[in-house]
Amino acid sequence: MNLHAVKAIYRFEMAxxxxxxxxxxxxxxxxxxxxxxxxxxxIGSRIQHVEGVAYGAFIVPGxxxxxxxxxxxxxxxxxxxxxxxxxxxxxxxSAPVSYFEIxxxxxxxxxxxxxxxxxxxxxxxxxFVPLSIEHPAWMVLFLVLTSVTFSLLGFVIGIWADGFExxxxxxxxxxxxxxxxxxxxxxxxxxxPVWQTLSLFNPVVYLVSGFRWSFYxxxxxxxxxxxxxxxxxxxxxxxxxxxxxxxxxxxxx
Amino acid sequence: xxxxxxxxxxCKTYTSGFRALKDVDLEIRxxxxxxxxxxxxxxxxxxxxxVCGIVNRTSGTVLVDGHDIVADYRLTRAMIGLVPQELTTDxxxxxxxxxxxxxxxxxxxxxxxxxxxxxxxxxxxxxxDSKVMTLSGGMKRRxxxxxxxxxxxxxxxxxxxxxxVDVELRxxxxxxxxSLKGRGVTIILTTHYIDEAEEMADRVGVINRGxxxxxxxxxxxxxxxxxxxxxxxxxxPLERVPDDLAGYGLELSSDRRELVYTYEVRGGDTGIRxxxxxxxxxxxxxxxxxxxxxxxxxxxxxxxxxSVSSDDKGASEIGGxxxxxxxxxxxxxxxxxxxx
Lengths: 253, 340
Hints:
heterodimer; A: mainly alpha; two-stranded antiparallel sheet; 2 strands; globular; B: alpha/beta; Rossmann fold; Alpha-Beta Plaits; 6-stranded mixed β-sheet; 4-stranded antiparallel β-sheet; 10 helices; 34% helix; 25% strand; elongated
């Protein structure tokens, strides 16, 4: 295994985060704080508790998940798209690195950034609402699995995109709406039965539910199903990445 | 000694149907400077890109130091450094970081001493902490070379390395390339500047329309295909070339004061002695004489033109059904004033 290459790519990607600290870390933290103000203070004053948890605290896992999904996709897609855009991808393609090593480095860096961001948002949330984490190991597991899974999706988008607009297309038009409709700010048990059933087709429901369970022991679906679905998504995106490298899609002619 | 790169029956057809390479056979000798010449779209960059792993081959084999470029890609790619044609760099990184990144990417542990040496040899040491975006075009070109040399390759591909660089820098690059050759690095150079190939190459390959037209030692090529001209400065202007001298194909200059005799370099008898005797017999005296020989550029243009016309002839003989349009032979850029 070319560990030097994995390290080089990983460090290179992490260095970009340091160069763009405002965009990478500060901006999502401010956005999340605004969510707390709007949802936690304004709406929370009308919805006191959800299943025994203060509304402000109830939305914390959903908010972290929202940032985790969008930032994982954004970090990974930009990381691989930018070399394609400026042409430096030639160096990656001509280097003695395997596809696995390339994915490990890019997805690893993107997931690391998302996890750090998630932890920062968690710390920020603790300033606004009282937090408890009943199952910290599961919380970390969901944090890591979700970051890696959606960084894989971001990697796929970064390969697929042929313009900056397409980089934003999936996060803005698909992932964000699904996250808002996936129980980030409410329990799907609060919905009418038909909508509850429809919500089960939303993959984000399983991610938010599992993550919230790790905090408060509350879940819309069982934690085993949440974990299983997360692994299914991960396997699905790994399969797409493998296909991309096998065929050279958008990388090699 | 087996060749360091062996290309056999290499074909590349893009999804658009364009055949960029057609059964290319080529061997690169260890430690040589090989210049690959050809007009735009001839297939030079496609050939390099396949050897380096950037483009997939359609068929054929490429061996680097005896190893297949696909089956043993780690081995082969680690041996190769590539300087691309385009100035593609990471704008926001520092010079030091981007060169160090390249070394790591090619599987080498950090070695600040080597990076320092490479940057110094390319006059980039003073700018090591500068962001790449602040460098001039010439410096970016040198940076690409530094990145390619960062992992100490034994084979270096230079795709149009001196495009857009000034005379001084160009000479520095030539000196660098020679010093690399001195250290045993095999260098494959594509260039539009024929004088560059003439100055540097040990062997020359000419590619046109995806086919290798010729591979030859540079000196041998110029000996075989080069023509010489003998110019005689006459004592008295001539009205016209006398009929007795018609068999020599002499040309009279516009001021009628010079006679130009063109002869082939190869072969024993150049015909000069007979010409001089004939001139004496015709009582034509001359004050001075000089010889000039054709440049690699002239040979290149002649070869490519010949290849185009024979292709067109072949297509015509087939029946003209798939006759290609008349190809434009792009004359390579000559820079006589820059010649070292």
